[in-house]
Amino acid sequence: MVFTMNRLFDINVSKNRLSATLTINPDVTDDTAWDQDALLGLLKERKIVFGYKHGVIQQICDNPYSVEYPVTVAEGIPPQNGEDAYLQNEIHEEQKSTSGDKFDFRNILTIPSVKDGQLLASIISPTQGTAGKDIYGNILPARDGRQLRLKPGKNILFQNDQFFATTDGQISITSNSINVFPIFEVKGDIDMKTGNVDFIGNVTIHGNVPPGYRIKAGGDIRINGIVEASVIEAGGSIHIRGGIAGQLKGSVKAGVDLHTRYLNQANVEAGNDIVTETFIMNSAVTAGRKIKGENIIGGKLSAGEVIEVSEIGNQHFARADLFIGSFAENVEKERQVQAEIFKLKDSLKKLEALKEKLKMVLAAKGNAEGKEQEMLQRQQATYFALKSQLDNLELELAELHEKDNPGAHSYLRVKGQLYPNNQIHFSKYSKLIHNPISSVKIFLNQGEITSIPL
User: Fold this and answer.
1) Residues 136-189: pLDDT tens digits?
2) Distance between CA atoms of 319 and 378, rounded to whole angstroms?
3) Closest to 345 measured CA to CA, from 377, 379, 386
4) What pLDDT is recorded for position 436?
5) Position 96 confidence tier, pLDDT thresholds 50, 70, 90
6) Residue range 222-234, pLDDT digits in tens
7) pLDDT tens digits along 266-282
8) What does the CA dihedral 173, 177, 181, 185 come to, rounded to 10 degrees?
9) How many CB atoms lie within 10 A of CB 307?
10) How far is 416 from 437, CA to CA, in rounded Å?
11) Nearest to 324 by CA among 398, 397, 408
12) pLDDT at 95 (0 to 100)
């Protein structure tokens, strides 16, 4: 009977081995009937032993054309990964209560001031995963939820998985800690009266920062106006409501995230994300994780994982260099190191040739003295010094390769138009855009820069 069933039905198993579907040979008549054991025997012959849908199988046996093909006849149980630990917000704001929500520390505009002794947040523990089973009866392991790697920072008491403030101030998040910092506030513009600012906590400036000033904070910086050609540096996040007009001078560096309205001839860097509301024009931009905005026109942009924008370039073919999963300075450094390695190898080859010539001269003379012997000793000293340099450079190159290694989640996404003359880089792989492309995702696939429509 199994032999007969093989001719009447085809079985397809999904790649994840969690379902089996049945298709029927069109020669089967609607008055054909079997018992369940015959059809189950066909499944067992294919090693399918778990998750039978007995109701469907019985319906096929009673009347093979009473179901729509392909039809699922066996279904496994997918594994359920555990939920990661997260930080629950325990702060009640005056105008709206956010207690119980996950704490989004990146949204620095909504982070409230807190009081000494106030409960700030609680760690909600991860959950265990639940294993599944495929249709072959194999156990499919599940991943347990990950622990939250966040430690108490400055002015924080950590007790029973809860974070408490030990002073009045404002919350700030760095890459691995939660802090409460005191606040330094400037009511208007930065000027000669205020001078430069260097403060251990958070800094709020309600006006503009004109050219030539320096603002440094251990926590977050909020600027409600425009920043022009100044140096801004924060251990936490930076929010500049009015945008950055860098004039190819100064710099803005955030330890965590940078949020701003626009970037114009700016030099900016963030440990995680850089988000702009409008355009990025002729700017040097480096984000440890993601760059997100509307339009990119010219400049050099590097993102450790992702660049997501609406449009790149313009009708005048302004060129931007975009590095995804790698950083422009690392790529350039790799080129320099590779050039130095090439020169050193060439020098070592010449020194080897010189050594052989000197040995031949010394062998012909039959003695180990004279200027040839001195030259040989100098050659050996130079050779070992250059060899040591070469070893160090090859180690440096390996480290650079490890840093500039675009992962599976690295990509460029353009919702609108990607204009010609823009250069896309994934580590050592580059692609110049020759023709306009609309709504595209670009990524590295097995050493080739690939694009697919959105």
Assistant:
1) 999 999 999 999 888 999 899 999 999 999 988 888 777 688 889 888 889 999
2) 51
3) 386
4) 93
5) very low
6) 999 999 999 999 9
7) 999 999 999 999 999 99
8) -20
9) 27
10) 8
11) 408
12) 38
> Measured between alpha carbons, how far is 155 from 29 in angstroms, rounded to an integer?
79
Classify residue 384: in a domain, yes or no: yes
Q: Would you list the DSSP string of 381-392?
A: HHHHHHHHHHHH
Please check whether residues 345 and 372 belong to one and the same domain.
yes
In which residue are the tokens 């599944």 written? 132
Residue 96 contacts by C-beta under 8 Å, 6 or more apart in sequence?
Answer: none
Mapped to the 3 state alphabet, what secondary structure does 18-65 carry? CEEEEEECCCCCCCCCCCHHHHHHHHHHCCCCCCECHHHHHHHHHCCC
Of 165, 177, 73, the closest CA to residue 115 belongs to 165
Which pairs with CB-CB distance under 8 Å and at least 24 residues apart come from 308-311? Answer: 308/412, 308/413, 308/415, 309/280, 309/413, 309/414, 309/415, 310/414, 310/415, 310/416, 311/414, 311/415, 311/416, 311/417, 311/418, 311/419
**Residue 39 resides in a domain:** yes
Domain count, the chain: 3
The C-alpha atoms of residue 142 and residue 77 are separated, in whole angstroms, by 11
CATH assignment of the domain containing 111: 2.40.50
Can you give the residue range of the structural domain that contains 16? 2-75
